[in-house]
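Case study 2.
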Amino acid sequence: MLICVGIALFLGFTALGTWQVQRRAWKLDLIARVEQRVHAAPVAVPTPDQWPRIDAAGYEYLPVKAQGVWLEKQSVLTKALTEDGAGFWLLTPLQQADGTQILVNRGFTPEKMRAEWLKQIAEASPSAVPVTVIGLMRMSEPGGGFLRHNDAATQQWFSRDVAAIARSQGLAHAAPYFIDQGLPTGNPAYGEARPAAEQAGILRSGMTVIQFHNSHLVYALTWYGLAAMVLVAAWFVRRTP
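Prediction:
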């Protein structure tokens, strides 16, 4: 019976270690693909017929370009914690010529500016001025964040949940993703992507953090180490009279 348990543990730990090695290879490939992707020239945003096929593997952090007019009055503030401290992301829908909307994260604003932004949003007038937005495609963040759930009724947003924000703001044809306005400094279109109206200390774009947690090697070594410990324990048991 003890032999069967030892064999099962050894095979189980070895399988888990091998799985982590495979996960590490996948993660390194993902990091390499994204690193190459974020430095590519911006392309046109996906059309509505492409929306069902959009996923993180194929589109996250893809540099894109979109044209339209701002729907300032449908803007929302979502909680943010950045290198500049705590504050909010300003998300404004961009109305495209085909009638669809794309939520655009226009940048970070500090906590002290919240009341001013809420006032500007409430007093905003319809705009007919066309704008071009260049930035990185991001996937929706459903549910909430900061251990809090989004509350559309009180306009308390703790994550950039595209579907929930679109519903609360009456956006009937919103894209299933959002755009972080601005590009990494190494992108050839970096200068073109910077908003002309950006003001230091009030609204800062281009703050996308591109990081991937990669501890798979540590996990793999842990599982393989446990498998080795099973072999050592079996050797001691075998030597014990």
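The radius of gyration is 24 Å.
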